[in-house]
């Protein structure tokens, strides 16, 4: 999950569960206790992604798969991080003479924020080393795409509504402003999707604008929106979020059923199968089937009518390159061993450029949504005629 969404989720938890206030609400004297609670929850939810700092100062290109989402994303390390952040917050608040929550409460808030980050990252297919350093596997639940804008909206909009209806004065202006900003964001997303291979239909922006109009203006009817507290609005958001996860779980199960139907109907010798989420909605899935000689990949749209087997007959097949001395040499390299440990649906490609042998390890899980574009997390090794490594690293373009 992207870091911004993690922060939005943390702020929502702070307001819904711990009675936190808006991040920039006014206070008569200094910073209020409620604001500190919201900031702590949000910062706790962002904190695990701080592991990218090491990547900035390191020249190891493999840190993204060996270090990112490890120690700072660990349930085992969570108590230590929560205690340290709570102590730091108490020290900073006393220095600034702010009204600070108790050490125990701050520790709990930070723990919940960090836990939300770990759980949200487990939802997507990248994988999270949630039990490091005891275990370095990357479990992944394959429920939500790594950037799911519906998911982000469910977490953000209730907080905006709570801000709109905190007082009657200026509420019309706040409603209009929130609606325009969110609708414009939806329009920008539709336009941007055309350049990343997702191609969200233009009608989605119109439909989103209509739904948002109801969401932001309906609470004005008979003034009932002003009777709902900030915490209640945010709890509504959490409830809708849980329903959305439930829908994603059901959709994932349905997608897996279709993949397994295809395996059975085609008598495929499957080593493993998966259904990973695709943008822009929980109805879009990518079925993956690893076999001894390659990987099958098929797009699934659960919103379309028709039998699963009929839809699954449209597929791509990515064959494994025939083994040779160059491939065996490359696979024995420590760096490639780390890449293979990360890849869930790896395929090996091989070709020659004159006397140079080129071996690429790619993961079909990250195949490019744009035809002809280099796949993310494709590792390339170039060997000379004697099998000596000339160069190796991620393919950038």
Describe this structure in words.
It is a single chain. The protein is built from 13 helices and eight strands. With 397 residues, it is of the alpha+beta class. It folds into three domains: 141 residues, no CATH class; 69 residues; 73 residues, no CATH class. Strands 1-2-3-4 form a four-stranded antiparallel sheet. A four-stranded antiparallel sheet has the order 5-6-7-8. Strand 1 and strand 2 form a beta hairpin. The longest helix has 37 residues. It starts with a helix and ends with a strand.
Query: What structural category characterises the helix and strand content?
Result: alpha+beta
Count of individual beta strands: 8
Radius of gyration: 24 Å
Strand order of the largest sheet: 1-2-3-4
Query: Which range does the strand content fall in?
Result: 5-15%
Provide a brief overview of the structure.
The protein is of the alpha+beta class and 397 residues long. 48% of the residues lie in helices and 13% in strands. The strands form two sheets. The protein has a four-stranded antiparallel sheet with strand order 1-2-3-4. The chain has a four-stranded antiparallel sheet with strand order 5-6-7-8.
Features:
397 residues, 4-stranded antiparallel beta sheet, single chain, 3 domains, alpha+beta
Helix-strand blueprint:
Blueprint lengths: L2 H15 L15 H14 L5 H5 L6 H4 L11 H19 L6 H20 L26 H16 L6 H23 L9 H15 L12 H37 L5 E6 L6 E8 L2 E8 L6 H5 L3 E4 L5 H7 L2 H9 L3 E8 L2 E8 L15 E5 L5 E6 L3
Antiparallel strand pairs: 1-2, 2-3, 3-4, 5-6, 6-7, 7-8
Helix pairs in contact: 1-2, 1-6, 1-7, 1-10, 2-6, 5-6, 7-8, 7-10, 8-9
């Amino acid at each position: 999950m992207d870091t911004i969404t993690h922060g939005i989720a943390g702020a929502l938890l702070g307001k819904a569960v711990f009675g936190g206030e808006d991040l920039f609400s006014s206070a008569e004297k200094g910073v209020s206790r409620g604001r500190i609670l919201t900031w702590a929850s949000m910062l706790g939810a962002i904190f695990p992604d701080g592991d990218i700092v090491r990547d900035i100062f390191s020249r190891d290109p493999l840190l993204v798969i060996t270090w990112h989402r490890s120690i700072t994303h660990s349930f085992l390390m969570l108590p230590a991080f929560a205690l340290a952040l709570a102590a730091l917050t108490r020290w900073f608040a006393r220095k600034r003479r702010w009204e600070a929550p108790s050490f125990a409460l701050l520790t709990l808030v930070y723990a919940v924020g960090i836990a939300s980050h770990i759980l949200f990252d487990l939802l997507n297919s990248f994988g999270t080393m949630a039990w490091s350093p005891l275990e370095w596997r990357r479990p992944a639940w394959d429920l939500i795409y790594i950037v799911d804008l519906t998911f982000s909206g469910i977490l953000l909009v209730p907080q905006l509504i709570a801000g709109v209806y905190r007082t009657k004065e200026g509420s019309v202006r706040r409603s209009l402003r929130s609606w325009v900003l969110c609708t414009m964001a939806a329009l920008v997303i539709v336009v941007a999707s055309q350049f990343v291979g997702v191609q969200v239909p233009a009608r989605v922006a119109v439909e989103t604008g209509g739904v948002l109009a109801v969401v932001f203006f309906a609470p004005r009817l008979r003034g009932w929106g002003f009777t709902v507290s900030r915490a209640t609005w945010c709890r509504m958001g959490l409830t809708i979020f849980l329903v959305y996860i439930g829908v994603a779980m059901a959709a994932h199960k349905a997608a897996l059923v279709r993949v397994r139907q295809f395996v059975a109907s085609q008598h495929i010798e499957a080593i493993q199968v998966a259904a990973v989420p695709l943008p822009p909605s929980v109805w879009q899935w990518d079925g993956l089937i690893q076999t001894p000689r390659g990987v099958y990949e098929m797009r699934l749209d659960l919103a379309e009518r028709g039998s699963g087997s009929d839809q699954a007959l449209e597929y791509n097949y990515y064959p494994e390159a025939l083994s040779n001395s160059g491939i065996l040499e490359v696979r024995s390299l420590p760096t490639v061993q780390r890449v293979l440990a990360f890849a869930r649906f790896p395929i090996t490609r091989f070709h020659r450029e004159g006397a140079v042998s080129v071996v690429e390890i790619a993961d079909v899980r990250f195949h490019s949504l744009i035809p002809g574009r280099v796949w993310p997390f494709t590792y390339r090794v170039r060997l000379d005629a004697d099998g000596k490594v000339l160069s190796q690293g991620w393919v950038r373009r």
